[in-house]
Amino acid sequence: MAPVVFLFLAQSPHHREFSVLLVLLAVTTDALDGYFARLFHQESEVGRIIDPLADKIDVGIIVVLLVIFGDIPLWFALLVLIRDIAIFAGGVYIKRRKGIVLPSIMAGKFAVSFVALTLTFAMLRYRMFDLAEEISLIVSTALLVVSFGLYVRRFVSVLSSSNGGPKG
């Protein structure tokens, strides 16, 4: 993530575009890593913890940069950061209490995808994307709230079940 920060802060021509390209490369390699881990049954409990944590840290760094430069509203950054911290903390609690690591839910993956799109528009700051960025911000916000509600529901379900897994 350090190269993205360095590029983003650089005052060279197209520094934001290069930052976006580097982020897209990181996202692509992360997706491929997960795909091949599942394909070849190389998933691990540590990987299911470390990979989402690294993703949350990366998003957090970008969100903070974009708030500092006035490219995204503070309320959106707080929503992203607080949600991610709460989900991670809940996952750690479940691991300690029930001994299981819960995978991400599909609604969470959709939310993160729209957040990434919103952050990409914000990083680029192209006027032609202003409407798309606004729509993406609204959709991201809705998906963040809905997915968080689903995570909370699963959290409660897992804690209240006797076998450790979520109730049907």
Task: Describe the fold and architecture.
It is a single chain. Helix content is 79%, strand content 0%. The protein is mostly helical and 168 residues long. The chain has one domain (2-160). Helix 3 (45-68) packs antiparallel against helix 4. The termini are far apart. 20% of the residues are buried.
Q: Report how far the terminal alpha carbons are from each other.
A: 39 Å
Q: Report on the biggest sheet.
A: none
* Structure summary, number of beta strands: 0
List low-confidence stretches.
Answer: none
What percentage of the residues does DSSP assign to strands (E)?
under 5%
Integer count of domains? 1
Count of runs of 4 or more consecutive helical residues: 6
| Fraction in helix | over 70%
Annotation keywords:
168 residues; mainly alpha; 6 helices; 0% strand; globular
Question: Topology of this structure?
Answer:
Blueprint: H1 2-9, H2 15-39, H3 45-68, H4 74-98, H5 106-124, H6 130-160
Helix pairs in contact: 1-2, 3-4, 3-5, 4-6, 5-6
In short, what is this structure?
The protein is mainly alpha-helical.
